[in-house]
Amino acid sequence: MNLNIGVIKGDGIGPEIVAEAMKVLDQVGKTYGHTCGYTQLLMGGASIDVHGVPLTDETVAAAKSCDAVLMGSIGGDAKTSPWYQLEPSRRPEAGLLRIRKELNLFANLRPAVLYDELKGACPLKEEITEGGFDMMIMRELTGGLYFGERRTVEEDGVMTAYDSLTYNENEIRRIAKRGFDIAMKRRRKVTSVDKANVLDSSRLWRKVVEEVAKGYPEVTLEHMLVDNCAMQLVKDPKQFDVILTENMFGDILSDEASMVTGSIGMLSSASLNETKFGLYEPSGGSAPDIAGKGIANPIATILSAAMMLRFSFDLDKEADAIEQAVERVLKEGYRTIDIMSEGKQQVNTEKMGDLIAGYIR
Ligand code: NAD
């Protein structure tokens, strides 16, 4: 298979961690007989330096012509970088917001995986985390409270603010379908999270999710109220496979879930649209404090590349191979500095990439 991949190396540690993910992808290509073709795309500070803007129309068009985009991270130190002297619409982050919109990326996927080897970094009690956990938070990204009408007015001498939480059935249906599709590739369980005891938008959410579930008889669906879900995530995270939820609930729950896994350098993510297209990136930022030192953890980006193989190219075996190689490297005790603990062997960014690529089978 020819994989037509757009690559946004970005700023800070972006180029360092993306280089390692490309190394692993190339090894997967060699082992499984695929060719990875890369189109380099400039975005964020790197684009400002060359074009004066964080994202050009040409880059948007080039990204659209790829099957998927792998990204490092963009942005710099807001206190010292000249990029932040520019008006907000010309700063690095504006490029990211625009590309998400241009590519209609409405579904955000954030896996929260606790590897048994890293459970020391987890703030939960050992009896809860024994054996690790592996869940996927699927958050609607382009609707709901953050995109609804809002206004602040004075009514009878009292300042009053309104934010509206709106979803139509089509928006719910498309994310629900994506959630069930993803569950079919995992342990076939969807927990749909809402606040249906109070909100109309949640009652419609629940109704549409139930309709969609009829098309996926192999998948078990359960509903959970968001307040209960927030508790269950720390009480019994092993119970979850795919958590499907709307924008604001997902914003909060995905941060909660990622905190219980330990290091930011391990957290991958994907944003998908209605086609197989996706933008894959680590959850962390450009880490200007460690950029250029060769010590960043490339695993989140490498795992994002695995997600890309699974969700944009349907190459499940190849994605498994990357995930298993990461597990093996951790099991053998290799660590970058952010996940280092006593008795383990510390390696730099490049060595971590070499080790993972070397264990692709
Ligand atoms: P950050 O995630 O870049 O860094 C927070 C801390 O985590 C730092 O100590 C950093 O060294 C560490 N860290 C992050 N990734 C790591 C990795 N792979 N390996 C080891 N350590 C890692 O967050 P920040 O400092 O708040 O933001 C820095 C810049 O990144 C800002 O310009 C911000 O806007 C940008 N940002 C970009 C994205 C994105 O591109 N999607 C996301 C978040 C932040």
Task: Describe this structure as you would to a colleague.
The structure is a single chain. With 361 residues, the protein is an alpha/beta fold. Helices cover 39% and strands 22% of the residues. It has helices at residues 14-32, 45-51, 57-64, 92-102, 126-129, 169-184, 200-213, 226-235, 247-259, 299-311, 316-331, 349-358, and strands at residues 2-10, 35-40, 68-73, 107-114, 133-140, 150-155, 158-163, 189-194, 220-225, 242-245, 268-272, 278-282, 334-335, 345-346. A hairpin with a 5-residue loop joins strand 11 and strand 12 (278-282). It is globular and about 60 Å long. The structure holds nicotinamide-adenine-dinucleotide.
List the topology elements:
Elements: E1 2-10, H1 14-32, E2 35-40, H2 45-51, H3 57-64, E3 68-73, H4 92-102, E4 107-114, H5 126-129, E5 133-140, E6 150-155, E7 158-163, H6 169-184, E8 189-194, H7 200-213, E9 220-225, H8 226-235, E10 242-245, H9 247-259, E11 268-272, E12 278-282, H10 299-311, H11 316-331, E13 334-335, E14 345-346, H12 349-358
Parallel strand pairs: 1-2, 1-3, 3-12, 5-10, 8-9, 8-10, 13-14
Antiparallel strand pairs: 4-5, 4-11, 6-7, 11-12
The chain binds nicotinamide-adenine-dinucleotide.
